[in-house]
Structure formats: structure tokens, C-alpha cells
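Researcher: I'm preparing a figure for a lab meeting and need a structural model of a single chain. I don't have an experimental structure, so a prediction will have to do for now. The sequence is pasted below. Please return the structure as C-alpha cells so I can convert it later.
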Amino acid sequence: QVQFVESGGGLVQPGGSLRLSCAASGFTFTTYGMNWYRQAPGKEREFVARITNVGNTIYAASVKGRFIISRDNRLNTVYLQMNSLKPDDTAVYYCNGDQTLGWPWGQGTQVTVSS
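Model: Understood. Here is the structure written out cell by cell.
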């Protein structure tokens, strides 16, 4: 079955960096675009970034220029390099395919940006 395991979150000071990883399984990874989403306390889950199966990328306006999404098709893994982090980036981060696929969500990884 489809499964996502996110890792790499933690506590970081404003202006710092983190690299998130997401290991995917249960489907042909090379066929699908992959997305990162995040959910802050009391808010709805929101789109962060997308990478297509051929490597094209799209970013939410709030993270463009600071975050970089990438993928390693040999490892079935998608990454999110987060730079110049701000307190507003504090959230649980999830990876998944397009929401129209209805794949299950992983446990996410907590990112906290605070001094």
C-alpha cells in the first residue's frame, strides 16, 4: 500500500536551515509528481511545493526563493531544503502525491522556528 515517511524536522532559529526527507513506497515513484504540504496549529493544511516526475518545480509564494524541492528516483525519496526559515514556517510538514489521488498521509515531521 502507499506509504510516506517524513523525517528531518526539528527546532531551528529564525534564519536557519533544515532539510526534510520523505521516503515513499507502494507505487511507481518515477511516474508521479510529488508535493510537500504543511499544517500550522489551528490552520488548514496548505501546499508548499511540487516536483513533477520529470523534475519541474512549483512553489507557494510564501516559500519561493527560500525552499528547494528535489527528488531521488533511485531512493524513492523527495526532499525539501528549507533556508532562511521564519517563525511563520512553523508547522507539521507532509509529503504526498496530488490530493486527487486520495493517498493516505504519513505522520509528518514537526518544524519549529523559534529563538
